[in-house]
Amino acid sequence: MKLRRLLIVSLCITVVGFGSLLAFAGREKKNSADFRNQFVKDFKRTGLNTTVGDAMMLRILVESARCKRGVEVGSATGFGAVNMGIAFERTGGHLYTLEIDPKMVKACRENLEKVGLEKTVTCIEGDALKTLPGLKGQFDFVFIDAVKRDYMKYFKLIEPKLKPGAVIVGDNVIRSERAMKDFLDYIQTSPDYDTVIIRASMEKNDGMSISYKIK
Ligand SMILES: C[S@@+](CC[C@H](N)C(=O)[O-])C[C@H]1O[C@@H](n2cnc3c(N)ncnc32)[C@H](O)[C@@H]1O
């Protein structure tokens, strides 16, 4: 009887131990650079997603400025969020990505989970015009990529929370220049910001504004 109990306990310990080992191996795989690079390469991008070149530019900006708290306005399925998430994980930071469409939120969260970035990136569901005011604390990185005519509104909601030295990126600033004229005029003429328009990718024949908050 005693021997049987001992055998059952040993078996349970072995099963639990093996299960934990498998879970650990799975987590290790998701977090590996090779797995993530392949995931980014194979990502089924839609027309909404940012381009590969722009996503890498975002990643490099986060890494090089050692950003710690970022906001993305407009997640779609999370291509930008995965790329920036990789950088925020390296800096020990966190990214909040805001998305209005529940289907996109689900896809974004699933993609983040697939590469083990669910703790580094939080996808918040809702209209960014309503969720931005609820974000607590200060931020040092912003990527605006939702409704083009609303860029100034998003920016004005986050601007009081920006630290000096913050990096602000606006997407599609060449093809949608007219729709976001108020935002571009402001960010390019305000003495508080240095701004440049760049084209990191020829894929969509478009570009991004990159600004640095001086004070
Ligand atoms: C161009 S896509 C974003 C692409 C994404 N940044 C990427 O890197 O792949 C724009 C997204 O903004 C979302 N969106 C539109 N209006 C929004 C709003 N008011 N608040 C939050 N998200 C919004 C859309 O549903 C869409 O998924």
Describe the structure.
The chain is of the alpha/beta class. The chain folds into 2 domains: 30 residues; 166 residues, 3-Layer(aba) Sandwich (Rossmann fold). Helices cover 47% and strands 20% of the residues. It has 8 helices and 7 strands; from the N terminus they run αααβαβαβαβαβαββ. Strands 3-2-1-4-5-7-6 form a 7-stranded mixed beta sheet, sandwiched between helices. α5 links the parallel β2 and β3. α3 runs parallel beside α4. It is elongated, with a radius of gyration of 21 Å. It binds S-adenosylmethionine. S-adenosylmethionine (SAM) binds next to α4, β2 and α6.
List the SSEs and their pairings.
Layout: H1 2-31, H2 33-42, H3 52-64, E1 69-73, H4 79-91, E2 94-99, H5 102-114, E3 121-125, H6 128-131, E4 139-144, H7 151-158, E5 162-171, H8 181-189, E6 193-198, E7 208-213
Parallel strand pairs: 1-2, 1-4, 2-3, 4-5
Antiparallel strand pairs: 5-7, 6-7
Helix pairs in contact: 3-4, 7-8
S-adenosylmethionine binds at residues 48-50, 72, 74-76, 79-80, 98-101, 104, 127-129, 145-147.
